[in-house]
Amino acid sequence: MNLEISPVAICHSPYKQKFAIPRQPRLVPAAVGRLMLQGECNNPDLLRGIEQFDYLWLIFSFHENLAQGWKPTVRPPRLGGNTRVGVFATRATFRPNGLGMSAVKLKGIGVDNGQHYLEVEGIDLLDGTPIYDIKPYIPYSDSLADASGGYADEPPKSLTMTISDQAKQQMTAAELACPGFSELAQQVLAQDPRPGYRQQDNDEREYGVQLHQFDLRWRVEQGVNHIIAVNPIRH
Ligand code: SAM
Fold first, then answer.
1. pLDDT band for position 234 (50/70/90)?
2. ipTM value of the model?
3. Looking at the domain that runs over 9-142, which CATH code has it been given?
4. Which of 44, 78, 134, 167 has the fewest CB atoms lying closer than 10 Å?
5. How far is residue 35's CA from residue 102's CA, in Å, rounded to a whole number?
6. What are the angstrom distances between the C-alpha of 202 and each of 23, 124, 167, 226?
7. Would the CB of 38 count as within 6 Å of ligand 1?
8. What's the CA-to-centroid distance between 124 and ligand 1, angstroms?
């Protein structure tokens, strides 16, 4: 039975590129997004009572990866990128229907120029991600404290962060334009976004990623992640 569905919302996110988005929700609590309700769902009636819940489940499309298709087995970064497991034994983005699910914290609801939205914290979604359903997280059923997490039993390790003197000044300017940017940038980079095979304590490379309207640059030395620069993106 085929199913034709349209997005109920589009996510506005600080993550402008897939690189450096955390692997799961809530690893970066400072990542705040807005779910902009779409079409006939842009109606406050659909949100009535939602503020009673602390967390929401989002069902969404890995829309940027759909064109690349999927394979029955994948190599999770958690297993060092060499061991294959079935796609249904992973949270990989390349999967038969290209759907993802994330539990995120509900911060509030609002309306901007007739566009109703939900503000959510701890997202792991790319800017522009289509959301296909939103449901309340129900602790008595959804929280399974005794469950085994298999090969992903522990949260990923995080790196200590430092900021160069130059980046500190740039960060102050970024913070003025975008309050909370420094905390967001540090939480994102503490997740060590480098590909698994490059996650050594010393790495000559400089890395960069776009976060909100800024280009963030960093390097890992002696297991510490140094933010080198924070520059506004030039269009
Ligand atoms: N929590 C979800 C799940 O378990 O279904 C997502 C897990 S998936 C491993 C997380 C990754 O999805 C992020 O690191 C990011 O690179 C990628 N991602 C997020 N939004 C995406 C989108 N719209 N299209 C493609 N990839 C996306």
1. confident
2. 0.99
3. 2.40.30.70
4. 44
5. 13
6. 22, 27, 20, 11
7. no
8. 6
Average pLDDT of the chain, as a whole number: 96
- Contact (CB, 8 A) for 217 and 228: yes
- What fold is seen in the domain 160-232? YaeB-like fold (3.30.2310)
pLDDT > 90? residue 106: yes
Mutate to test the pocket of ligand 1, among 126, 187, 188, 209 (most ligand atoms within 8 A of CB): 126
What are the tens digits of pLDDT across the range 30-59? 999 999 999 999 999 999 999 999 999 999
Residue linked to tokens 């406050």: 44
Residue whose CB lies within 8 A of the most ligand 1 atoms, among 97, 124, 188, 191, for a mutation test: 124
5: pLDDT strictly greater than 80 = yes
State the helix-helix crossing angle for 181-190 and 165-177, rounded to 10 degrees: 120
d(CA 9, CA 45): 15
Q: Can you count the helices (H) and strands (E) in the chain?
A: 3, 12
- Express each pLDDT in 214-232 by its tens digit: 999 999 999 999 999 999 9
Domain ranges of the chain: 9-142, 160-232
Instruction: Give me 108's structure tokens.
Output: 């509030």
